[in-house]
Structure formats: structure tokens, C-alpha cells
Amino acid sequence: MLTISTLVFGVNSLVLKPSTAVELLDGQKAFESSFRLIRTATNFSERNNSAARYQFTIEVPQDAGEALKSVKITQKENMDTLVFKADKTLASMGNNLAGANIPLAAVGGESKPGETTIVFDTPIEPGNTVTISVKPKQNPFTGGVYLFGVTAYPTGEDSPGLYLGSGRIHIYD
């Protein structure tokens, strides 16, 4: 027979149990729940503008089960392909760049147009929001809607990424 104290203990055990990452058969880790790409924006939307920066804000849910180690941003095929300046990439905690600066371990992508990968020095723990700012050499020459696929990666070797969706930047003539 269950007593109230047994029932309360059982419920508390479920609530207090720490979340752990999903471990795949080959030892790779995966996130337990989906992240959210909550904002994509640019400070300048005119074509050819060389001062433009693109911001991608990602919410790491409390129940992710694993920290966010890196993010890959890939431009979807369009009229113009951007080249990102790796040395101008920034990241901060929160919904914009006003939060605490996040040190980056590596940024890659200048050698592959339309793509950049941001690796955090210290992984972003679940329950946080991070904003990444990438700088193209300049906005595209042709106006239109430009889509950027965003994929989040957990810590661990060759772990599969979680595709968060596409961020949209409008470039105007």
C-alpha cells in the first residue's frame, strides 16, 4: 500500500533527478530537447552595405541534457553567396549583444563562402540564451530574402547536430 510520504518521495525523486544527455550507440551525445532559434536580425539591410552584422539568438532549454558547444550557420543557395569575416564574430549571453561577452575557442568559414562555424571556449549550459553576431564582408549585391540554416552541436566528438531552422534576413535595393 502506498502512503503519502512514499508518493511524495517518488515525485521529489523525479523532479530532482538531473538531466543527462542522450548517448547514442556509437558513444556520440545528442540533445534531449530542441533548442529554439528565437531571433535573426541585421543592423543594416541595404544591399552592398559593408557595415552589416547578422545576429542569431538561440535559447538553450533547461532540459537540453547537454551544453551547447558550437553553432554552424549556413547560407541557403541564393543569387549572391556571402563570405563571413571570422575575426569579427562575437557572442554574448542574452537576447542581444548587450549581455556578457562569451569567449570563442574558434571561428571558421572564410575559406568556405556562405558558411561559418562558431565554437565556444566554454560550452553554453542549459537554461541560457546566447546571441551570435557574424559579419559578412558586405551585404549581398542583389536584394531579396536570404535564409541561413542554424545547427547546434553538443559537446563530444563528432556528435550529430540539431538543426534549429532557418533565420531570415531581408536585403533591400
SSE topology:
Elements: H1 4-16, E1 22-23, E2 29-30, E3 36-42, E4 54-59, E5 68-75, E6 90-93, E7 104-108, E8 115-124, E9 129-134, E10 144-154, E11 162-171
Antiparallel strand pairs: 1-2, 3-4, 4-9, 5-8, 5-10, 6-9, 7-8, 10-11
Describe the protein.
The chain is mainly β and 173 residues long. It has one helix and eleven strands. The strands form three sheets. It has a five-stranded antiparallel β-sheet, with no helix packed on it. A four-stranded antiparallel β-sheet has the order 3-4-9-6, with no helix packed on it. β1 and β2 form a beta hairpin. The N and C termini lie far apart (73 Å).
Concise structural overview:
This protein is mainly β and 173 residues long. 8% of the residues lie in helices and 41% in strands.
List keywords for this structure.
mainly beta, 11 strands, disordered N terminus, five-stranded antiparallel β-sheet, 41% strand, single chain, four-stranded antiparallel β-sheet, 173 residues
